[in-house]
């Protein structure tokens, strides 16, 4: 346990350094919430906690929406994990999770995840919905210059990985992604939490549109 904690402490410090300064809703506060949710899910789901937490700490480090040097970041993460004492097999487990868990990677074909991957995916997605999810969505939209809302721009019904991040509105993002992932959780605990958060988001979007139409 002490050796595991030592490794995870090093991963945490590395993640905090790499995610510092992000203002798009993917900063280290997001990572901390994903970790806490993963720990909650682990209480009901038998899985390798070290792999879960390692992937949770690192899941945004080489995300292509956050860095232009994906290959360089991946190489750096691999080297750091080896330096921290992870075996080659453990590193591959972590990468298999991170490289197949995102919404974009599952648009055109469902990616099979290990139990550990399902927990990390659920924990990450739960932070994208509900009250904090709403705040993060508007933060991301503001950083990228997206309109909050335009009734003339309809939500896209079908997206590919290539056009997923093409311009849309922040409100459309609820229809294009957030309401969907709330229905796509893997674990029983996550499904219960997601249902409540989806209802909250639906009420928010209804109120937002109502107030917008009063302008």
TrEMBL record:
Residues of the HD/PDEase domain: 23-138
Q: Where is the chain membrane-spanning?
A: none
PANTHER family the UniProt entry points to? HD_PDEASE DOMAIN-CONTAINING PROTEIN, SUPERFAMILY HYDROLASE, PUTATIVE (AFU_ORTHOLOGUE AFUA_1G03035)-RELATED
Q: What is this protein called?
A: HD/PDEase domain-containing protein
Species lineage: Bacteria, Bacillati, Bacillota, Bacilli, Lactobacillales
SMART domains linked: HDc
């Amino acid at each position: 346990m002490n050796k595991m904690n030592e490794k995870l402490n090093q991963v945490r410090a590395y993640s905090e350094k790499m995610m510092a300064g992000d203002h798009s809703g993917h900063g280290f506060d997001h990572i901390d919430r994903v970790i806490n949710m993963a720990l909650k899910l682990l209480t009901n789901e038998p899985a390798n906690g070290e792999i879960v937490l390692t992937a949770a700490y690192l899941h945004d480090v080489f995300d292509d929406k956050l860095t232009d040097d994906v290959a360089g970041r991946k190489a750096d993460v691999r080297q750091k994990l080896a330096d921290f004492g992870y075996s080659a097999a453990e590193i591959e487990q972590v990468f298999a999770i991170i490289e197949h868990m995102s919404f974009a990677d599952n648009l055109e074909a469902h990616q099979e995840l290990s139990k550990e991957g399902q927990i990390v995916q659920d924990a990450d997605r739960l932070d994208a919905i509900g009250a904090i999810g709403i705040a993060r969505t508007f933060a991301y939209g503001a950083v990228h210059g997206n309109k909050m809302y335009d009734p003339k721009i309809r939500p896209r019904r079908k997206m590919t990985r290539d056009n997923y991040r093409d311009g849309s509105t922040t409100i459309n993002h609820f229809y294009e992604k957030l309401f969907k992932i709330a229905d796509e959780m893997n674990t029983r605990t996550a499904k219960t939490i997601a249902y409540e958060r989806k209802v909250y988001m639906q009420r928010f979007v209804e109120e937002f549109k109502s107030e917008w139409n009063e302008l």
